[in-house]
Amino acid sequence: MTTVPLPDFPAGFRWGVSTSAYQIEGATGVDGRGPSIWDTFAREPGRIVDGSTGDEACDHRHRYAEDIALTAGLGVSAYRFSIAWPRVQPGGAGPANAAGLDFYDRLVDGLLAAGVDPVATLFHWDLPQPLEDAGGWLNRDTAARFAEYADLTAARLGDRVKLWITLNEPFIHMTLGYGIGTHAPGRMLLFDSFPVAHHQLLGHGLAVAALRARSTSEVAIANNYSPVRQVGDTDADRVAARAYDALHNRLFTDPLLGRGYPDAPGFDPAVVRDGDLDVIAAPIDVLGVNYYNPTGIRAPEEGSPLPFEMVPLDGYPRTAFDWPVAPDGLRELLGQLHDRYRDALPPIQVTESGCAYDDVPDADGRVHDPERIAYLDGHVRAVHEAIGAGVPVTGYFVWSLLDNWEWAEGFTKRFGLVHVDYPTQRRTPKSSYTWFRDLIRR
Questions:
Q1: What domains can you pick out in the chain, each with its CATH number?
Q2: Which residues are catalytic?
Q3: What family does the Swiss-Prot or TrEMBL record give for this protein (predicted)?
Q4: How far out from the chain centre does Cα 63 lie?
């Protein structure tokens, strides 16, 4: 672990931690909450590696006051959480469920009382099951339903939420949920999933308008990005790398910033109607960047259904997810965004950055996680280098405050600054919690 002091960041830089509703809230039958696609998916045999569900998760719905105290104890200026759409609109349409919004009222007020800015994500993958039954994000009507949900939520919370994030990682939701089926709703459409991309982006644009009408707070989207590392030096390898970059890094950004859709694999102009691109390109105040690792790409084998092949990158330490630890990838990515979009690029906030390790309490009950500290140290330095190079980065959020239910991996992967003993729900701050707190105090 490096002992070189960390550099200073600009005044007003936003330090935060992130969570998501289905991964921590639990209480799936409380407040009149309806079923989500993840409730359905987790009950299908073989979908979740440990057979668990998010029914209890971290029981945040009942323990939110304790979790607010842990957040405030870090000294962060912001807490990014997501609002469960099925808790606000159990059927995915119609009037707001007052009991569901009451919970978020209490959470937002508790954060403000603790001196922490609420940063609310409207969609972190927990689509109401009735909307999926009607086609999910393959159905254009879901974009309109999302705008309606945004309006209802902002009408209740818009005077206190400090930053709205419409969608979390629409590329990941499209790819894993509709493309290859490893996430809910479990469809396997490959490039026929492009309508999911367009309808998510259309929903984002419609939601931006709804949020602007109800709230004066800033509006953002949180995209997942991965710098492409070309493996091989043939023309075919270069074509494959460009194709993957267009799909992962440009498909959900070019149209946001007024450039229309790139020439990406699976792009189908038939679903794009007149005026859609103008709606999608509604100005945003912040671009959220979620970064975990770069991706190795080379030309595919003959007969492959994909125009690229993903390959492991050698020479990096690995997380428990077997992801390469590459802080230089974050610096590279931030520079690429700046160079690619220039004046069209709004200020960036890194809305997720974190790592999973097999954290185990010692005999005294303490949880030491030096690998996570080293990870965060490297990525914080990468952000500072990007700022020094002129990239407008104004915030950094660690994923995650708590160990949580990690989607298809269930309870087997721990990302938290705080260890959660799931049988007892006991919270224990790890050594990385103390490290991050001390960094912010500087």
A1: 14-441 (3.20.20.80)
A2: 169, 352
A3: Belongs to the glycosyl hydrolase 1 family.
A4: 22
The contacts of residue 200 (CB under 8 Å, 6+ apart) are 137, 143, 167, 170, 173, 174, 252
pLDDT, one tens digit per residue, over 169-221 is: 999 999 999 999 999 999 999 999 999 999 999 999 999 999 999 999 999 99
> What is the rounded end-to-end Cα distance, in angstroms, of the chain?
19
How far is the C-alpha of 299 from the C-alpha of 309, rounded, in Å? 6
**Cα→Cα distances 146→36, 176, 201, 258, 323, Å:** 14, 20, 11, 22, 33
Q: If you average pLDDT over residues 151-158, what whole number do you get?
A: 98
Q: Is 204 annotated as a binding residue?
A: no
Q: Is 178 annotated as a binding residue?
A: no
CA distance 390 to 385: 9
Give me 26's structure tokens.
């639990």
Q: Where are the alpha helices (DSSP H) in 158-256?
A: 170-172, 194-214, 235-245
- pTM of the full structure: 0.98
> Any binding-site annotation on 406?
yes
| Residue 142, burial from CB neighbour count under 10 angstroms (0-12, 13-18, 19+) | buried
Cα gap 316→313, rounded to integer Å: 7
Half-sphere exposure of 153 (CA within 13 A, CB side): 32
Other CB atoms closer than 10 Å to residue 81's CB: what's the count? Answer: 28
Task: Tell me which residue of 167, 201, 368, 351 sits closest to 271, measured CA to CA.
Answer: 201
In angstroms, the CA 84 to CA 126 distance is: 7
Cα separation, 211 vs 217, in Å, equals 8
